[in-house]
Amino acid sequence: MEKFDVIVIGGGPAGYAAAMRAVDYDMKVCLIEKDRVGGAGVYHGALSSKTLWEISQKVRNVNESLATRASKFDITWAEVKQTLEEAVFERKFQYSCHIKLLQEETISKKFNYERGEGRFLTDHEIEITCNDGEKKVIYGEHIILATGSTPRRLPNIIADEEVILTSDGIDEIEDFPKSMVVVGAGVIGCEYATIFSNFGKTKVYIIDRQNQILPFEDEDISKLIASNFDKNGVTIHHNANLVRMERIGDEVEYELSYPDGKSEIIRVEKALLSIGRVPNIAPLCIENAGVSMSKRGIHIGDVDTQTNVPHIYAVGDVSGRIALVNMGEIEARHAVEKINDPSIPPISYDNVSTIMFLNPEVAAVGMHEGQCLERNIPCKVVKIDYSVIARAIAMRNTQGFFKIVVTNDDKMQILGMRAVGEHASSAIQAVALLISMGKGVEEIAELVHPHPSIVEGIQECVRMLMNKSVFKSSVFKDKLHCYSLIDGVKTPLQRL
Hints:
single chain; five-stranded mixed barrel; globular; alpha/beta
């Protein structure tokens, strides 16, 4: 039986990062992947969906520019699919070449790549069922689980990936559907609704169980995104209960009921189930290793990335914590570092930056205003509209805002930020760094930012909190807001 310092099961972004970090430590590592290296980070996930979003945004921007000057710009699904395949192939090629070259180098004796499915026989022994049918058993001193997740299904609804789709099948459609319903009003559902409505060839419906899309965000963000959906012809079924959904011929028929007793039946060409993802746990046979589970995934308790079996780690989507590529990679690298140095500090989840690819894009880090209110945390809130930021004016795109939440004291430590609008993702990092460092707003106030730049809006927010802003919130009451929030009561802070 061949022995390894570390066995990594799963070759997605998290698993691959773990294997490469183990290589850095000169550990003997075996990476097991049954399908394609890159996982959902490349195929049917982050890269593919964001490529679609980028294409759709360009199409929407061109058509908005040509609205009064020329005929509508047209793009075929075949052209979209070609660009999508090129992007996926480029990333796939990088992974494939990297693995091949690693195996050919002198460290090849340290790095092994197995194409197959791994499962526990004991807490140290892994049986690999190779794709060619061969079976082998290997021993791991440490084992890292990074098997990712798959789209969640609904009971009594068959996702055939032809008419009723998940994110696994949406890229494989043959043409723009004339109509499509998206089940789920969270991030992924709203992203796909944005993509297909941007192209302007699909009538999009969203089924929202609540009265607000993106319910985990502040109302001002949800309202802005919903307003843009409305302008793009998207119909949102708020407070809707999905009674049934079934394929009828080449169409989908779904029935909704509402709290007031009303109901409706609608037919569309395609349906997209976007109701979250579930960890890929069953094939691992973790019970053979004594690894316990939580309601969301593999249980890693309070010891970050480490399961109840000390030499077994769970990283990325399979842990059920934060299903993001960037966090999966960080957790994976951390697990390897923890193996080599158990004294390292735990991962901080306080400064996790996220981006929602919507119209406009939304970037976030830390807590938002609503969370402070729910947890009864006294805070100060400052908000600036894009319409008073020079760069946004120059871009002729002033839809959006920055909102920063800080502690209600003299230090004004940053609790969180939301950036909505063009270049939002570029603006979030500086604040994320300050949150991780536990710093206050004064760090931003005196920086010399490039001009004109979107990040100048962040600086103006901070200056409002310090009562030395260029524009006064008491004057531009519709564009600038600065107030304390204590026990649900808002009190303006900036006065002339």
